[in-house]
Automatic annotation (TrEMBL), chain A:
It comes from Oceanomicrobium pacificus. It is found in: Cell membrane. Keywords: Cell membrane, Membrane, Transmembrane, Transmembrane helix, Transport. Signal peptide: none annotated. PANTHER family: INNER MEMBRANE ABC TRANSPORTER PERMEASE PROTEIN YCJP, MALTOSE TRANSPORT SYSTEM PERMEASE-RELATED. Belongs to the binding-protein-dependent transport system permease family. The keyword Transport applies. Residues 72-262 form the ABC transmembrane type-1 domain. PROSITE patterns: ABC_TM1 (PS50928). It comes from the Bacteria. GO terms for cellular component: plasma membrane. Its main location: membrane. This is ABC transporter permease subunit. One of its GO terms (biological process) is transmembrane transport.
TrEMBL record, chain B:
It comes from Oceanomicrobium pacificus. GO terms for biological process: transmembrane transport. It is a multi-pass membrane protein. SUPFAM superfamilies: MetI-like (SSF161098). This is ABC transporter permease subunit. Belongs to the binding-protein-dependent transport system permease family. Keywords: Cell membrane, Membrane, Transmembrane, Transmembrane helix, Transport. One of its GO terms (cellular component) is plasma membrane. It holds the Pfam family BPD_transp_1. It comes from the Bacteria.
Length: 276, 292
């Protein structure tokens, strides 16, 4: 039985919801807006909201002075690389756990999850020592490996929950028809698994892009991604609001866009399938 | 039917992930444990090549008896507790609001979720400078507008300020999960209660809240694990000063700033034990879900 909601009530809810939504979004809106102001307008009191001379100057200054593109490129390589590497390792594992489950499957899954709970600071020194030993400090490949490892449990879990929803009978039917294991994976499983794999990739790029413990502690000049680049603004340089805003806007824009696409998968991925 | 061949194939396919994670867990953990029983101060000439002195449980005792330990535990508890209370309470209210029919649902949802995608260093710095700066920050403008003296947020109300920043980042997460849970609530049950004359408060306490309890537990557990290791937000705002030194940050300082590896490692072991206590509860819930 449907309940008719009065237009008046809907209007009230609309106003309240929009007010709350805009309030929560305000810091991001303000950052984006300030990035188009001059430094003087950025700190003017009362603040200017719309009527100021819009300028792109901050963006070019940030790029010129700090070589922003290099940090961006590092972020892209580290987030993308660690995700792809993780997917390559996780797909076979999740596939076998979903379709050839054994008594130990559940224990293995839970154990994998438990490695995610290891507090990073507890193993900071050992990891830096290993990095020094293998010349990985301040290299992109080093961060690709570490971020792949910290996100691998989430990747396996997400893929597992997606794969488990693929009906096993279809695979059996393919097997009856004489399809080999390779053909079964390539022609039957892959097309059905693509959406799940895509959302897993999306969520993990977001997580890796925003990771801010290892990226801050294991990089210096060469491999530093955007998280570290922005952290350098914690010095007095951060007081140049317009430039800080321009740098911040560039650092978060790609992920805001990706994030909006992945809203639904976010819940499943971050709760390890416990809430869908 | 799983044949013998497919079973062994499955084992081979699982091997890389299992071996990597096993190594990732065991190698650093063993090293941390090893260092925690050693005197290891690289700046004072201790080195692995020359061998480290075994000091038994000295580091463990010194870590907890140092004057910064209990304050850091207190700070950690206040920070994690504060963020949990704020995000869960506001998250429930927000989820119930967003579940109502209104115009522009999709856009408002996006606005609310957005902070979750902002990298921690950006949100910390934007809040620190553009909002909490005592001279030019928006909040200072606002305070002056109402004739009040601007607050020195990050030195006079430092812990509260960081709780505010972190809550802003995690509110979307709590809201999104609770909203997903609310949407799975059977609306007929609510309507039946309404027709039986149950007032809104009663409907909330006896139908909505019990339905949400599992999702709330999950939000609390997952957030606790992430919040216990909050780092960047403190690193770029106060650097652990003004009473914002959490257990994680204290360990970080012991290892990186004072280069006392033995002491820091003992602290690390405490942090690992603490995180695992929380993790056990989370795993129980997630594990139950696997059987279903």
């Amino acid at each position: 039985m449907a309940r008719a909601t009065s237009t008046q009530r809907k209007l009230g809810t609309t106003l309240l919801a929009w007010a709350v939504g805009l309030l929560i979004f305000f810091p991001i809106y303000w950052t984006i807006l300030t990035s188009f102001k001059t430094e003087a307008q950025a700190i003017s009191d009362p603040p200017v909201f719309l009527f100021f001379d819009w300028t792109l100057e901050n963006y070019s200054i940030v790029q010129e002075r700090s070589d922003y593109m290099r940090f961006l490129w590092n972020s892209v390589i580290i987030a993308g690389g660690s995700t792809l590497l993780g997917i390559l390792i996780a797909v076979p594992a999740a596939w076998s756990m979903a379709f050839v489950p054994s008594k130990r499957t559940k224990d293995i899954l839970l154990w994998m999850l438990s490695t995610k709970m290891l507090p990073a600071v507890g193993v900071l020194y050992p990891i830096s020592l290993i990095f020094v030993e293998f010349n990985l400090l301040d290299t992109r490949i080093g961060l690709v490996i570490v971020l792949m490892l910290i996100n691998l449990p989430i990747i396996v879990w997400m893929l597992y929950t997606y794969f488990r929803e693929i009906p096993g009978e279809i695979l059996e039917a393919a097997r009856m028809d004489g399809a080999s294991l390779g053909k079964e994976i390539l022609y039957v499983l892959t097309p059905m698994a693509v959406p799940g794999i895509a959302s897993t990739i999306l969520l993990n790029i977001i997580l890796a892009w925003n990771e801010a413990f290892w990226t801050l502690n294991l990089t210096a000049a060469n491999a530093a991604p955007l998280t570290a680049f922005i952290a350098s603004y914690s010095s007095p340089e951060g007081l140049f609001f317009a430039k800080l805003s321009a740098a911040s806007t560039m650092a978060i824009a790609p992920i805001l866009i990706l994030g909006w696409f992945s809203q639904k998968q976010l819940v499943r991925g971050l709760t390890f399938g416990a809430v869908k | 039917m799983a044949t013998k061949a497919s079973r062994s194939a499955a084992r081979v396919m699982m091997a890389p992930a299992v071996v990597l994670l096993l190594g990732w867990m065991l190698v650093p953990l063993t090293m941390t444990l090893f260092f925690s029983f050693k005197k290891y101060l690289p700046l004072r000439g201790d080195s692995l090549e020359r061998g480290l002195d075994w000091v038994g449980f000295d580091n463990y005792i010194r870590f907890v008896s140092s004057s910064s330990f209990w304050p850091s535990v207190q700070t950690t508890l206040i920070m994690v507790g504060g963020v949990l209370v704020i995000t869960v309470v506001l998250g429930i209210l927000l989820a119930m609001l967003l579940d109502q029919p209104f115009w522009g649902q999709g856009i408002v949802r996006i606005l609310v979720i957005a902070p979750f995608f902002v990298m921690p260093t950006v949100s910390a710095l934007v809040w620190k400078n553009m909002f909490m700066d005592p001279v030019n920050g928006i909040l200072a403008h606002l305070w002056r507008f109402f004739g009040a003296e601007p607050v020195l947020w990050l030195s006079d109300a430092s812990l509260a300020s960081i709780i505010l920043i972190v809550s802003w980042q995690w509110l979307p997460f709590a809201t999104l999960i609770l909203l997903t849970a609310i949407q799975s609530l059977d609306s007929e049950q609510l309507e039946a209660a309404e027709m039986d004359g149950a007032p809104p408060q009663k409907r909330f306490w006896f139908i909505i809240l019990p339905h949400l309890s599992r999702a709330i537990t999950i939000v609390i557990l997952i957030q606790t694990i992430f919040l216990l290791s909050i780092f960047a937000e403190i690193f770029v705002t106060t650097g652990g000063a003004f009473g914002t030194r959490t257990l994680t940050y204290l360990i970080f300082q012991r290892v990186v700033d004072s280069q006392n590896i033995g002491l820091g490692s003992a602290g690390g072991v405490y942090a690992i034990i603490l995180a695992n206590i929380v993790a056990i509860f989370l795993m129980r819930i997630v594990g139950k879900n696997l059987d279903a």
